[in-house]
Amino acid sequence: MKNVGLGFRRDLTDDILSLDEKIQPAFVELAPENWAGVGGYWGNVMKMIAEKYPITCHGLSLSIGSPDPLNWEFISIIKNFLKTYNIQIYSEHLSYSQSNNAHLFDLLPIPFREDAVKHIVSRIKEVQDFLEMPIALENVSYYTPVAAEMTEDEFISAIVSESGCNLLLDVNNVYVNAFNHQYDAKKFINKLPLDKVAYIHMAGHEKVAEDLIIDTHGQAIIADVYELFDWTLERISPVPVLLERDFNFPEMGEILEEVNQLEQITHRQWNNQLKAI
Amino acid sequence: MEQSAKSNLRAETIKIQNDLVEYCRSNNDGNVQGTRQDRLPNYRRLIHTIIWEALSDAYPITRSILTSVQWDELVDDFISNHRSAEPQLYKMPFSLIAFVKNNDYQKRFSIPYLIDLLTFEWVEIEVHTMQDQELLSFNPQGDFMSTNLVFNPYQRILTLNYPIHQLRTMDISMNAGSYFYNVYRQPNGTVQYMELNAFTRNLIQQFMLHSAEYNINEILLTLLKDLSLEMKVSITDEVFKFCLLLKEKGLILGTRD
Question: Which of B188, B167, B163 is nearest to B60 (CA)?
Fold first, then answer.
């Protein structure tokens, strides 16, 4: 049973659509806002992808941590998209990308504060009720703390436990944050609600300075992140795992080698407990 | 848009979050409470790159017409001064057209056709990605003068002030006038345009507007009612040829089954 999926990007279309079933990833993940409402050539590609692969969705613009009101028109579009393609897993980022009615299309760090926890918890509940499904929220990479009054693990744990949402554990983000903010990645993971992990992300990053890594998704996964992934899997039940690669694409063979490496680790750690998504 | 329940956020937290967004949008040195100032520029750079690339992808010809300094200035100004309410990144570039118009960049950059060029490029994207529709059942071989027509739903008629289609071959700055185009999507997904004149533009508009109720002969009966018989015959003949062309290009799919 395969367990590892691949982030679908338009640059990968021909390869993804032509892969033999024996070597293709278990599923593909895409950002629903990049595909909802799209017809024509790309609409047709979307249909072909949906015929060939199970799909999971990983959103970019929900902006769950924003001070601005939730955009229900947008969330309706997402709901309709999830329904159209019978998508069972919808995840988003524990961040915000909009405030003062300005969308910035990137993931900004939320102040780790009690009032932000309450604000986000209530919004998660609203979104889950509306979508009629649980969502999984990802621990995001961040390059500066923002007026924090609690630790990152306390912030994430409080949100997950109070809202009832799932956790998308991005192992590379933990590694990046641990490096950038000088904490111990394993101790951090141990403090998270690991029983609520519903999905895992793995990716590459780029070290741009002696004390700074940027979470680029443009490089191969490094050995230390594989090691952290291996260590993490021992502590959680089997869940789908995704390789994210967003640009600087190598040959598909290289990407599939990474997928295979992740598969081998999941099989070693989870043996026969794997379930199809 | 529905409003969420009353925010639980303290005024200070809201201010910090807004300050971070405003910092990223601006080019000013600034501080955001409780952040590492040496790390903040990473966010500004990442956001700038995302929006710069989205606009460059949407408007490649505009970008090539402007100098790189002008393009960067336009994108910077757009990020700083325009609040994009659009959560879907692929739709965001549309708002650049209004921004350019409202801030008179065509004068600032001395490119009078700038808005037309942006509009032309955007309509190409819009038609290319237009949501698929359930097509009416049609007969591709039907008599399209006496049976109601089924049009390709993926088309937009554009009225511009400059001949954008001649941009690559001549300086169009001095050629202000009225120019009409039909931008349409072919079954294979590629987008084409067809030049129209005022008469054919009106014809297509009338046909599309009334094709659910009337066939072309019936529509022409009304349109040409004040003309002599000789003129009617001549124009009807030309309209037939024009319809053949529209059919050949896939703008008319056929006749209603």
Answer: B167
pLDDT digits (tens, 9 = 90+) for B52-71: 999 999 999 999 999 999 99
CATH architecture of B133-257: Alpha-Beta Complex (3.90)
Reduced to 3 states, what is the DSSP secondary structure of residue B155? Answer: strand
For residue A146, give the nearest of B20, B88, B90 by CB distance. Answer: B20
Give the single-character DSSP code of A94: S
- What would the DSSP string read from start to end of B183-200? EEE-TTS-EEEEEE-HHH
Contacts of A101 in chain B (CB under 8 A): 83, 85
**Å between B223 CA and nearest CA of chain A:** 34
Two structure tokens written together for A209:
């300075």
Give B17→chain A minimum CA distance, Å: 7
Position A275 scores a pLDDT of: 60
pLDDT averaged over every residue in chain A: 96
Q: Which domains does chain A have, with CATH numbers?
A: 4-273 (3.20.20.150)
Shortest CA gap A273–chain B (Å): 38
A127 chain-B contacts, CB cut-off 8 A:
none
Q: Name the pTM for this structure.
A: 0.94
